[in-house]
Amino acid sequence: MYYISSSLERIEHVMRDLYVAEDLGVSLDNEGSREYAKVSYPIRYGNYARIMDTDYIYQFNLSGEIKFIQGHTSAWPGNEWLKRTAANDWVYYSTEGYSSVHSLTGEYYLPCFSYSKNSISAINPFETATVKKALNSLENLFVKIGRLCEDSAPREIRPFFRLVSRNDKEKLRSRSDELHEITGAPLTVLPPDTRHVDYDVIPIIIADGCLYNCGFCIVKTKQDFLVRSRDNITRQIEHLKNFYGQDLVNYNSIFLGQHDALQAGADIIEFASVTAYEMFQFKNSIMKGANLFFFGSIDSLLSSSEILYESLNKSPFFTYINIGLESADQESLDILKKPVTADLVKDAFRRIADINRRFERIEATANFVIGSMLPENHRSSIIDLAGNSSNRYSPKGTVYLSPLDNGEAVREIRKNIYRIKNHSRFPVYLYLMQRL
Ligand code: SF4
Fold it and tell me: Which site among 142, 248, 385, 389 is 20 to 30 Å from 286 CA-CA?
């Protein structure tokens, strides 16, 4: 017998095609937004399935893997939620009371990571009882679904319940290893621009290592720079197609890793992006458009060919290239042990502005660090570039600031961001490093 408990009665108003199994309300074919948007309420993208019980709404991707958890009782903090990444990390989306998150990050939610070294939140949500309880609730949900899928669940939802049962916590844990085996390395950091697609990118590594191996950097792989072969890239794309499986139709964006894909050159960037576009069938994606993200360095940017930008500008992708500059002050570069000169940093900043001006389907962005160990000249060097190098405001060429201090210095970090933002002719936002 199925019944609708009193607290589930209202589900009927919010869920389409509702099925009920014990105290679970289930709807299979939910359609979220087809375009990425910046909104101050929980938004879901693409197609997904949903299970609701007395405390939580659980959302599943088309492969039957849990992707979101959101509480719906008064104990849950408002419009906040938990999102699980393709590499099985949970990320907590905090509104921080909607006070300053948007002006700091360009988004209405602050992503909080369980592993973060450059958090600006004084509280780690993963240490709160509310978030722990929500994550622990999955155990019971999987047990219940496993029991229901064989007998008492409505016939229409049994295949979905079986799919979810196959993706229990153990299976999900192994997904991270599986993904990194395919790419041949863990993805230690995503470009800040991937926020525009809620970090839903398919990673393909086209080159390992980086040119500088800077002393301050906590995400470097310590390898020498080496471009992957076309065979290796094609193999990754084939395996990624299987890895994302049924849910692939919900994706329209790729990240070409690792830390300096720009240095791999025009041919290999074009080969990887075109092959991925075709093999992932982005043309048929539920999500509109297509996006390409990668990192570049000062040297790779300054030596990059015009042909690359012309070809990217004509491709089906909107391309975001993020360049690590860190500082335009020589003393700070020396402290950071970044082996480049301040003059080259300034040249790179000018080149970024030039690309943004000339190619409408490309945005090149810049990263700088902020931290208490750097001298006053560091901040003024960024203000000088972002505020005085152009006489008009530009919506492209975002300047990202990545804190080297952690949560204990939250107030100072925020003050520093606003000081730079107030002078800048370019958008200025915080960069919190998310891995995949
Ligand atoms: S900041 Fe960039 S170039 Fe420097 S070590 Fe890290 S990844 Fe490599």
Answer: 142
